[in-house]
Amino acid sequence: MASPSVDLENVPSADLITELLRRMKCASKPDKRVIPIGPPGSGKGTQSPIIKDEYCLCHLATGDMLRAAVSAKTPLGVKGKRGNGQAMKKPSCQKGFILDGFPRTVVQAEKLDEMLAYQGIKVDKVLNFAIDDAVLEERITGRWIHPSSGRTYHSKFAPPKIPGVDDVTGEPLIQRKDDTTAVLKSRLEAFHRQTQPVIDYYAQKGVVKTISAEKPPQEVTSEVQKALSSSLFAL
């Protein structure tokens, strides 16, 4: 079926030029298919948009789309593989993609590889955002938020002037329920149990690059850029 036409006459010239320049810049970028993996608080969510923009990749949030695509070998699953493969070929994914939160298990990784192989492509790089659990605990359990404004503080790195009180309004700060030590430890245990085998799986394929995620964000960005600029299949 023919795609619907776009009335370019009504698109502002500045938008057209901006998009044209973006596509020209992206044309020289190498294709990349990237999977960032890291525990909660590792900075993966901060780095992913930077990777997406720098390398002109599309962002594929897994949700039901990829779960359906890599489901058991049912007719629906097979159709999902084909349909989502086509989605990966849309213009925004021309230079590749970055996956968000997937795969979480070795079985999912295997099914993902099957789906990509069906399209004649494969994962180029898995970025392992490695960070000590104790560092994560300090990062996350020290976070405090002012609910009505969204202002955030950290008991060590960005403390309020008065402990437990918002600098602007004087109202009390709260901790998100997921930012407690008990919840964090449970999430980390689940992450290590499920995800370390996924890292091992891709390490055997020679596509894993470990990133020192405890460093400041700018330094992590530099490590990521070096990892993605190096030979795609270097250990």
What secondary-structure arrangement, pairings included, does this model have?
Blueprint: H1 13-27, E1 32-37, H2 44-54, E2 58-61, H3 63-69, H4 75-87, E3 96-100, H5 106-118, E4 125-130, H6 133-141, E5 143-145, E6 152-154, H7 181-203, E7 208-212, H8 217-229
Helix pairs in contact: 2-8, 3-4, 6-7
In short:
The protein has 235 residues and is α/β, with parallel strands linked by helices. Helices cover 44% and strands 14% of the residues. The strands form two sheets. Strands 2-3-1-4-7 form a five-stranded parallel β-sheet, sandwiched between helices.
CATH architect. name: 3-Layer(aba) Sandwich
Major sheet characteristics: 5 strands, parallel
- Proportion of residues in β-strands: 5-15%
CATH topology: Rossmann fold
Tell me the span between the first and last alpha carbons: 44 Å
What is the top-level CATH class?
Alpha Beta
Q: Structural class from helices and strands?
A: alpha/beta
Count of distinct strands: 7
CATH 4th-level superfamily: P-loop containing nucleotide triphosphate hydrolases
**Spatial ordering of strands, largest sheet:** 2-3-1-4-7
Shape: globular
Q: How many structural domains? A: 1
Question: What number is the mean pLDDT?
Answer: 83
Compute the gyration radius: what is it?
Answer: 21 Å
Fraction in helix: 40-55%
Low-confidence stretches: 74-84
Number of DSSP helical runs: 8
SSE series: HEHEHHEHEHEEHEH
